[in-house]
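Appendix B, Record 12. Input sequence as logged:
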Amino acid sequence: MRHSFFFLVAMAAALLLCTVQPGTAAAAWGRSFNAVKYGAVGDGKTMDTAAIQKAIDAAAVDGGTVIFPAGVYLTGSIFVKSGVTLRVDRGVTLTGSQQIADYPMMPTRVAGIEMDWPAALINVYKQSHVRILGQGVIDGNGRVFWEVFFKLRKLDAPRGMRWAADYDAPRPRLIQIFDSNDVTLGGGLKLQRSGFWTVHLCYSRHVVVNGVTINNNIDGKGPSTDGVDIDSSTHILVEHVDVTNNDDALCLKAGRDADGLRVNRPTEDVVIRDSVIRQAAAGVTFGSETSGGFRNIRIYNLRVLAPTPNGILFKSAQTRGGYAKEIRIHDITMENVPTVLRMTMNWYPLYSYARIPPGMKDVPSYYHTLALPVPISKGIEHVEDVRIWNIRATGAKTAFDVNGYPTAPLEDFTLSHWDVQAQRAGHLDYVKDWIFKDALLHTSDGSRLLVEHSSGVTGVAISPAAASGEQ
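Logged structural output:
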């Protein structure tokens, strides 16, 4: 009953979003408040942060809509208040300041741990009933922040501290929805050049992201510019998203290591659907921040294109912990994506395992947070009850690259109605009770799926043409 109610609410919100047109949004969401009347200039040079915030604060009194005449509005962090609709129409660009001082430090969660971090360009922070809509552009102008990260990574990596670089380089996200309820984002918005993650939904409930185009590769390839991150949040609908970036596209997260286990907030009751991933680290990703766990996740009708290296990606580490269960993924099309299903429980050790070098003094507090030890009994993620069906892939290199834990095999998977063309079948390692139904692997090298350290794997099929050339 709870799940059925969620789907009805999500569908109603999505339908409402799609029916609000630029010319009628003010009527739908209250009286209009023109940012120019509050001092905004929109010439791309004048800092308009204070003026935009004044318009938002005025609109918050009665639940109004903030609007902008066509123009380019240079701004630092702005905070959308409860009851407000921020409307960024066609011809309007909100572009981010390149001065980090224009993004005030605030308590939040960053890459799995709670810490102070620069506010996003657009923030919904502990608010409710907020709409961010339109067919305009929200531009993070983030190249300067990417360069800060690359510089610090060059310093950290030789010291065995690749894990620290992401936290040492403060970079503003484009949009953060934090500890908020009933928020809608979309309607044709173009989101680009984010300094860090693009859309971060954290500790939030009843959020709809419907109709956004994300492109963080316009001005080079921005590091860690994830598309949509759903982080320890519930009752989330993400649909009609078009992603081009240089990291995870549509990603589920739930905290990292000791701090994530302390917070212990799951990501659950999520629908991701009807989207295209043009370039990213994966079409859809679980992790690597898995500590709080994932439950009741449904993902379907995705198109994943090369050069994206992975279609479906599960990643964790031996200090993350957490679980994934009641996962349903179906109707996914992949075109020239090298690996169809990748599952790695020891992802990127240089990043995943934080160790402060002996003798290092005066380290920031978040180093200690990251380096807190996690007992192996709590550090292993448990993945079970996964159903993946109606998967079609052409031009792949490897169908399966799956590696579980010796002490916690990936358990109770059903993979049905697969039609995969790949150079090689790949392998399953440390899995239990994997059932293949009507699953065809067309392998150009004639290989069959290599199954090791596993039990209860049944029904894997290979095409007759490939079988005739088996090695």
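The longest strand covers residues 382-403.
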